[in-house]
Amino acid sequence: MVKESQEQLEQEHLDKILKLIRQKERALDKSIDSAQSEAQNLNAHFFDDVKLDYDGYSTSMDTALSIHQQQQMLQERQNAWQHDTKQLSTLQRLEQKPYFARVDFKEKGEDKPETIYIGLGSFANNEDHFLIYDWRAPISSIYYDGKLGEVSYNAPDGEQTVEMTKKRQFLIEDGKIVNMFDTNEQIGDQMLLNVLNEKSSIQMKSIVTTIQREQNKIIRNTDADLLFVQGSAGSGKTSAIMQRVAYLLYRYRGNLNSSQVIMFSPNQLFNDYIKNVLPEMGEQNMVQMTYWQFASRRVPGMNVETLFEQFEDDHEDKDIVKLKDSLQFFNAITHYAKHLEKKGMLFKNIYFKSKDKPFYSKDKVKEIYYSFNENYHLRNRIEATKEALLNSLSHRVEPETKKAWVSKTIESLDQEELNKLYDHPDQEFESSAKEEHFLAKKIVIKQLKQVSRKINQNRFLNIRGQYLAFLRAVPKLIDLSKWNISQQQWEDHLERVKHRFIERRIKMADISAYLYLYDLVTGRRTDYEMRYAFIDEIQDYTPFQLAYLKYNFPRAKFTMLGDLNQAIFTKDESRTLLGQISKLFDSEKTEVVQLTKSYRSTKELTEFTKQILRQGEKIEAFDRQGPLPVFYKRDNLEKEYHALESILSENAEQDLTTAIITKTLAEAQAVARALKEQKVKATLIGSANQRLVPGTLVMPSYLAKGLEFDAVIAWEVSEDNYHSIDETQLLYTITSRAMYKLDLLYTGEKSELLDNLDPKTYRNK
Ligand SMILES: Nc1ncnc2c1ncn2[C@@H]1O[C@H](COP(=O)(O)OP(=O)(O)OP(=O)(O)O)[C@@H](O)[C@H]1O
């Protein structure tokens, strides 16, 4: 009875708020309309109101001023219009679900509690009294953070403590409260269950209404220079950062815009998957790219090894790759570059007209480069060299005019081209010799622009040669025996890098080092504008890459998220990653947060998948029920396909979206082909540039990173396919993509990596 009347009261409150929202919407509609027609009017009569008067200096100043005023008026209208439009779109979002929570609290010394409602945006009445608080407002934090009783939150003027007396959650649909419950805990499990039971989709959802306490910490952290989040599969790392971006954009409104936030994600598919989360919260998307895009756009003339090649290649030179991925290697380059201030810089000849004799020989450039005193560092040295070369260019004009090519060029010009060379049509000269000389000079200056362009583009540097020279110097800088690398191995490796350069190819393990050396040598300015950098799936980055990213964004605060259990590319190295990263940041300004609860999958699935990891980070299951995973052992491939088809139709009956995840691309292609022959509809996702589509998908493991599906079918988990211990993490990543149902198929023997599973946690069929 009490509950019922409470519900009535809340419904009445909701009705009132909805009415106010609609009222405000109508008012905004009106003012947008009138601003629009006023702007049109202003535009149409722009020149009627502007005093056009062109005689005399002062009157034309008047004209300018008048135009300026008109423009300003237009601008103001425009601003008001933009402001109103933005507010209207917030209200339109609120109209569907005005709020999702209510909190009552008492400030110190007050007896009467205050009530606030929390929603996706804020809404105030005409007296500036907030009827709905944005979930990112300081006070809203208590909803996510605390139990009833004393709670603190960070207000603009320092920490505030209040007594929370009520916490209530609402499920609202079409203006009606469908369900509401009071809770004492963090965000009640009931609400979370409702949300988690929803089916997967090809777009990630926002978790605003059910952010968990630990996640809230990540979202609202503003102190750390490095926020490192270790979270098990499905613990909401990615969700938390999306909310964090929205939070930061709100908190620093006016000082931070979305172009100053960059996110590195595992692949393009994933970018597609998350692209709607921020717009749905009324924010613009940040800059998003993959590390590969970041690196390869800098070397347009070279082919950078792709994700596919990196994964499917046999990993040659494992020890060498390990060295190249390390911080030591990064430091070795820094050190090497320092030494280039004294000697060892390589140059290229600059040619002009003649291919035989350089216009500036590399020795000449080198002489200039090292002629400056020792206070010149690499950046100043290159600038000073450019300046000296450009200067000397002007002295080269005169001698060049006497060269044969010049008179030949003049002869070859037609009258029109020739006319263009004169300063004005009836230019006079004392003698024809002088005229010829004038023309020759014009021609030379014009043609020498090619040279000045080359100088400005640093074309006298030999960066590839320099990188090889650095590699040659490595044995002097690093004790290779400590990395299990012999002199001979290193030299052979060097030859391979050189060979690849000739073919304009570069490996992932070289590209960052190459770019870093390039930046140091050319004194390229790094990006001081970027304020926040997010790196998802950190376990797939090398310490070198992270150091290079930090070097690139010197003013950015970093948020790094990852699951050390899911390292696909870096495998065992990921274990020491945190140790290596922490060397890059001030330890006082580093915070590590652990997320251990897995929200993605049912309890059955989480309990099953976590056993695949022999050792590993802590993982807790969220209490949501579903079927046990099922193993299908079949005698041959044909029977395995039969099993696959029957699972697919079973899943379709239950309306589950399914991903068939294979180890390699070749397998995914084979499965997709086989299904097509049987007229079973499925989409092959073979490259990261494809789009995610609804329905059954077939994809290789490395493209499934970060994604989730109602049902996953792990294809061919046989001993033949998965046997090396470092493939454990791969199997874990594949199986942990499933939210509700998991089936594992194989022929022959089951992979040994799946041997030690408790038989109670799965079934065989
Ligand atoms: N607080 C929450 N409320 C509701 N759903 C949540 C919450 N936290 C996480 N989820 C859900 O759990 C699932 C997994 O989240 P997410 O993809 O962010 O995890 P992750 O840690 O990045 O996973 P992985 O490392 O395996 O890719 C998503 O469906 C997300 O919506």
UniProtKB/TrEMBL annotation:
One of its GO terms (molecular function) is hydrolase activity. Residues 210-602 form the UvrD-like helicase ATP-binding domain. It comes from the Bacteria. Keywords: ATP-binding, Helicase, Hydrolase, Nucleotide-binding. Its EC number is 3.6.4.12. It comes from Lactobacillus colini. The keyword Flavoprotein does not apply. This is DNA helicase-2/ATP-dependent DNA helicase PcrA. PROSITE patterns: UVRD_HELICASE_ATP_BIND. ATP binds at residues 231-238. Pfam families: UvrD-helicase (PF00580). The keyword Methyltransferase does not apply.
